[in-house]
Amino acid sequence: MRVFNLCIFYFFCQIVENRGSRQSIDIHYWIGNTSSQDEQGAAAIYVTQLDEYLGGSPLQHREVQGYESPRFRGYFKNGLIYKKGGVASGFHHVDTNVYNILRLLHVKGRKHVTATEVEVSWNSFNNGDIFLLDIGKAIVQWNGPQSNRREKLKAVLLAQDIRDRERGGRAQIGVVEGGDEKDSPELMKIMTAVLGQRNGPVREATPDDRSDQAQNNNVRLYHVFEHSGNLVVQEVATEPLTQDLLRSSDCYIADQRGSSVMVWKGKQASKEERREALNRALVTKNYPSSTSVKVMSEGGESAMFKHLFKSWRDKGQTQGLGTTYNVGKIAKVDQTKFDVMQLHARPELAAQHRMVDDASGDVTVWRIENLELAEVNRRTYGQFYGGDCYLVLYTYQRSGQQQYILYMWQGRHATTDEITACAYQAVNVDNKYNGAPVQVRVVMGKEPRHFLAIFKGKLIIFEGGTGRASAVNPDKGARLFQVRGNDELSTKATEVQARASSLNTNDVFLLKTDHVSYLWYGKVCASVVGRAMSDVLSKQDKQVVMEGQEPAEFWVALGGKGPYAIYTSPPPQTEEPLHSPRLFECSNQTGRFRMTEVDDFTQDDLDEEDVMLLDTWEEIFLWVGNLANQYETKEAWNSAQEYLRTHPARRDPDTPIIFVKEGHEPPTFTGWFNAWDPHKWSVSESDLSERH
């Protein structure tokens, strides 16, 4: 618990090893609602001085009472208490055995609790929140009828903290349920003696006086620079932003329509620009005083800032599956080979490479036929048609127990009814295995790594048609398949239009005609798996054709020779964008979809009443607690799609969405959390029944 006075400001500095494996420093300065303009100005000056003393690397956070960032609130696990008064009362020593106290605390918040001193009167109460009547030797907690289980628990922890810290553990704590006051007659006598007889019912619940936290996809970038001795602020771009817009010689302001403002300071920017960027951020657009402002230097960007950009690459970042280790300010690059045998022992590796295992488990494939499940012949496993939808159940062992992943593959040309039936049948399969499978939505052409790996280099995606035995696909004449991959864990063949413009020098292509098949190798292709895939695609004799040595019949089959993409060097290995994972609590309590970020998250932040969204950039995880709101659970898929649609970096709407239930988390999920406890939610049946 931390006590803050309303008329003064505070500094809070945290030094941790958590930003890209580098030492990071966060400076928070907190401003009370009734603090003076001079005090607020002094705070900004002292922050700048402290920032310069620390070498300009700290990430600065401007915190305003009632609008604190999730990171700031997260420092105080038992909650914040806002006290009336200023300097005169703010620096008095807190005596731990004084009982001559009378105050009423208004408690709000589900993740991070705040308690504000309010008038000691029944007029301060409402049905939606929790109130602590503190009379020194006793603390009475009154729970509004519309408050939820977690809010009540958080309030109890706050009351216990007050008792232990301020009363030496000697105060008594009592709880009154606002909807059943008659069940606590003795406690109600105490409340009546202090507050007087209540006249009429308690006020109805009031919504939080907080700005809407729905994701804002309207982002503008402003350039702050000196011109003829004056400091100029000029708009330079709107979303999606690209990293090359930022120049080291200047400062910039990223504005999410006033809901969040971030100031970026280039390493070579002048002292005037660096000092005045924050003030300009607040003054230029006339933002309200409650606006969240973060100030960061080049090289010390926050995850939230990087997420505003379409792509982001840090200095020293490697490509492919290498690993960068940072020690102080010197980065040592160690290109380590990806070893699938380490996945179970190191969940963080499984998360990084999106692989739960080495893909050696059991696979069962169904196709949606007449809106029902029809099992696919094992001889055709790995062949997916754009006019179909499929369910793929993958079963593997972890710690001696069977685990399941259920992939829902949606063809580009499947009907709406088939896509709906695919989701419905996924629920049936999920129920058959008692809710254990992790569900993954896969859009045609956006198959995740593990999905590719389970078909051992034999994944073929046909542009259209159907794989149903009774169906006759129209004869398309010549067919062209692009083969891409570095090994059997990453290879797939995708049908493309059979024309010359579909070729490119980076890949291998198989051209299949009625009489012969051609295996065409681009001049700088890096693939070594073309031959194995071609044997799956065609049983015909295959002519190997090197780029530039094509026979005339090859071009005839493609409708004539024509231009195509030509490269002079091999493609780089897949580059991983350096985007830190972000965790959000999803809620519809206000009648619209809202997301609240959880900073520095741990497993403890996954509450059983929640639906949580974990964004690892390449994938979106939806984690659903066992006691989660039924409507939020039902709407979870829509929430994830809404999150992608409104993301300021214009994210790919077909990013894989993975549905995870409490107690059935795969290593690709748990690996993003430090010190994951697999037994955290292991309870007996009797315990479970008591909780319900």
TrEMBL record:
Q: Which residues form a coiled coil?
A: none
Provide the GO MF annotations for this entry. Answer: actin filament binding; phosphatidylinositol-4,5-bisphosphate binding
Per UniProt, the keywords (alphabetical) are:
Actin capping, Actin-binding, Calcium, Cytoplasm, Cytoskeleton, Repeat
Where does the Gelsolin-like domain start and stop, copy by copy? 26-73, 114-181, 234-306, 372-452, 593-669
What are the GO cellular component annotations? actin cytoskeleton; cytoplasm
Domain of life of the source = Eukaryota
For whether the record's keyword set contains Repeat, the answer is yes
For this protein, the record's SUPFAM superfamilies field holds: Actin depolymerizing proteins, C-terminal, gelsolin-like domain of Sec23/24
* UniProt key word Hydrolase: no
Q: Where in the cell is it found?
A: Cytoplasm, Cytoskeleton
Q: For this chain's UniProt record, which GO biological process terms are given?
A: actin filament severing; actin polymerization or depolymerization; barbed-end actin filament capping
State the family it belongs to: Belongs to the villin/gelsolin family.
**Per its record, how is this protein called by name?**
Villin like
Q: Which organism is it from?
A: Sparus aurata
